[in-house]
Amino acid sequence: MIVLDVAVPVPLNKTFHYLYPEGINPENIVGKRVKIPFGKRILIGYVVACLYIEEDPSLKLKQLMEVIDDEVLIDNETVELADYISKNYICSLGEAYSSIIPISMQAPKRISRNTKNVFELSYERHILNAQQRNAVSAINASLDKNSYSVFLVHGVTASGKTEVYINVIEHALNQDKNAIMLIPEISLTPQFVDIMTRRFGSKIGVWHSGITNVEKYKLFHKAKIGEIKIVLGARSAIFVPFKKLGVIVIDEEHEHKYKQEQKPSYDAREIAKWRGKYHNAVVIFGSATPSLETYTDAQEKKIGLIELNERIDKKDLPEVKIISLKKRLFKTSLLLSETVDSISKTLARKEQIIVFLNRRGYSPVIMCKKCGTVFQCPKCSISMVFHKNPDLVKCHYCGETKHFPLTCFVCKGREAAVFGTGTQKVEDELKRLFKNAKIFRLDSDTASTKKVYADVYNGIKNEKYDILLGTQMIAKGFDFPRVTLVCVIDADTYLYLPGFKSVERTFQLITQVAGRSGRGNVKGSVIVQTNNPMHYAMKYAKNHDFVNFYNIEIEQRKKMLYPPYCDVAKIVLRNKNEQRVDEDSENLFTFLNDLNDSCELELKLLGPVPAYIAKLNNTYRRHIIIKGERKKILHLAKFLENFKQSLGTFVGIEIMPSDLL
Ligand SMILES: [Zn+2]
Ligand SMILES: [Zn+2]
C-alpha cells in the first residue's frame, strides 16, 4: 500500500505515516503542508515523500484531514536544509521544516491580480570612494565566477557599507540572480526599505515578524516565481525560497539576534553560509564591530576581509568623551551636568540628539520604605520594574503586572520607594530640563505597532523631533545626518553580566551607538557615562579602535577557552519543582560525563548551575555547559533522548548559544 511520509514539528526523531483521501493522487501531496490528527491533537505536518509499505492491519494508520497548500513548498534545497538543521542544531525534521516554512503561513483566499506598487525610481546613485569601489569589485569578481565565497566587510560607522551592499546586489540582479539582506532590528526596516526601493523599485520584498501570515505566503510565492528579486528582513528571511541566490548580506553580523534561542536554535549566519554554498553565492558579513568569531575567521583567511577604515567624504569620526558616573552630585539623576550642558548647546544649534539607555520603564528597583525589602517578581528571581502613567509594576521577563503601590509581602507596609533610572525617567528629566524640545521615546513600551518605526524614522529625518531617546532599538544602523550628539546614559548595563560575551557586547554597543553621531556635515560628539571609565572596553570604544580591542579580548577567550577557541552547547533543564530539576541536572551531568569518558570524546562538561535567572515564570532553570569540538558535542547530544528525567522536567539543548546566561 502507498502511504504519505510526514514530518511533524514535535520533538520526536522520526517521521510518521498517514493515509490520504480517496481520489487524490498521493504524488501531488508531496512537498505540501497537511492538517493531521496526532494523538489527541490536530497538527500541521510536512509531506516529505510517498512510500510503499507492506499492508499491516495492526498499524492502524490515520488519514490526513486536509491538504493545506495548492502549490508545492518543499523543494530539494528545503529537504537538504532541513536535514542540515536537524543534525546541526539537534531537532526533529518536522521542527526543522517549521523554521524554514512557517506553520502559520497562509495562502490568500483569492490571489488578487496585480496590486503591485509602482515606485518612482529616482536612481539616486552615490559616487563610490576608492575603498568602496575596491570592495565592490572584489566581491563582484566572486559573483562573476559563480563560486561560493564569504567576505567580512569591516567598515567604521558611516563608511558606506550599505552602498557597497547595494552595488553588489545590483550586480547580482544584472546576472539574473537574487539577493537576501538581513538587518538585525525591526526598527531599521523603514530606513532600509526607503534606501532599497529608491534603487530597486518594486523588485524588493520585506519579511519580518510584523507582517501577516498571508503576506508571508505571498512573499514566498513571489520569491519563488521571480516576481521579487530581493528580500529585506529579519533573521527568518534567510529561508526565503529564491531559486537562484547570488548574494546574501548580513548587516551588523555581530548581533546576537541572528541566533534563534528557541528550538531549532539555528544561526542565520551559518544558514547563510550553507545556502551560499548550495547556490554558489557570495555571502557578505558587514559590521563596524565584527564578532570575535568572524574577525578571527578573517584573520585566519578562512573568509575574505575587506576594510573600510574611513568615513565617506573623509568625515571625522565623532569625538567620544568618557565621563565617570562617580562624580555625580545629585544621586537621584543619571544625567551629569556635562551631559545636560552638551544637550543644551546642541539644541541651541538646532541639531539633533540621540539619548541611549538600555533599560526601559521608570525605575528598575522598588523597595519597601518600612523594612527595605526589594520587590521581586513572585514568579521569577528578578526585580520588578516601576512604570509610570499608569503607575504599574512589571516583570520584564514573564510580563507579570501589578498596581502600584504594592503591599510589602514581608511587613505588609504600603509605602515603597523607587530607585534607579529607566527610559521613562530620563524622558521626564529631559522634558523638565528642555521644555521646548520635542522628544520621541522608542522602546518596546512605545513601539506597539510597526507604524511607530516609520513615524520615528520620518519624524527624525524631517526634523519633527529634536531628541530620540530609547533602548537598543535606536543604538544601531540609523543614519540621521542632523544627529550630532549621542549620549550613552549608562554604558555598564552589559558589563557585569556573567557571560563570556559581556565585554564584547559593551564595546560593540558603545561603538555602534556612538557611530550615529556626526554622519552629516557637522562633526559629531559622543558622551559615554560609566562607572568604569578605566575599563578597556571604554578606552578602545573612545578611540574607535576595534583591532586593539580584539587583540586583548581574544586573549581572554583563549585563556578561558571560549569561542572561537572551542565550540559550546548549553543544556537547559526546567521544572516547576525545584527539587526535581536539581536531581535531574545532577543525574544528567553524571550520565553525560560517563558517556563522554566511555566514548572518549574529551569534552569539558561544566555545571550543573542555576541559570542567570534561576526561576522564570514559576519554573526553575538549570544549565549544563559543554565545551569542545562541535562534531563531538553533536555526538554526545544524540544520547540525550535516552536520558530518563522525572515527571515535568524539560531537557533542551542549544548548540553554539550566543551566550551562556
Ligand atoms: Zn516591608
Ligand atoms: Zn516574572
Which features does this protein show?
six-stranded parallel sheet, 30% helix, 4 domains, binds zinc ion, seven-stranded parallel sheet, GIY-YIG endonuclease, Rossmann fold, 661 residues, alpha/beta, globular, 16 helices
CATH topology of the largest domain: Rossmann fold
Return the CATH architecture of the largest domain: 3-Layer(aba) Sandwich
**The CATH homologous superfamily of the largest domain:** P-loop containing nucleotide triphosphate hydrolases
Runs in which pLDDT lies below 50 for 5 or more consecutive residues are 115-120
Walk me through what this model shows:
- The protein is of the alpha/beta class and 661 residues long.
- The protein folds into four domains: 2-100, 3-Layer(aba) Sandwich (GIY-YIG endonuclease); 130-312, P-loop containing nucleotide triphosphate hydrolases (Rossmann fold, 3-Layer(aba) Sandwich); 315-361 and 422-559, 3-Layer(aba) Sandwich (Rossmann fold), CATH 3.40.50.300; 567-655, Ribosomal protein S10 (Alpha-Beta Plaits), CATH 3.30.70.
- The chain contains 16 helices and 27 strands.
- The strands form six sheets. The protein has a seven-stranded parallel β-sheet, sandwiched between helices.
- Helix 1 (76-88) crosses helix 2, helix 3 packs parallel to helix 4 and helix 12 packs parallel to helix 13 (536-542).
- The longest helix is centred in the last third of the chain and has 21 residues, at 578-598.
- Bound molecules: zinc ion (2 copies).
- One zinc ion is lined by residues 377, 379-380, 395, 397-398, 400.
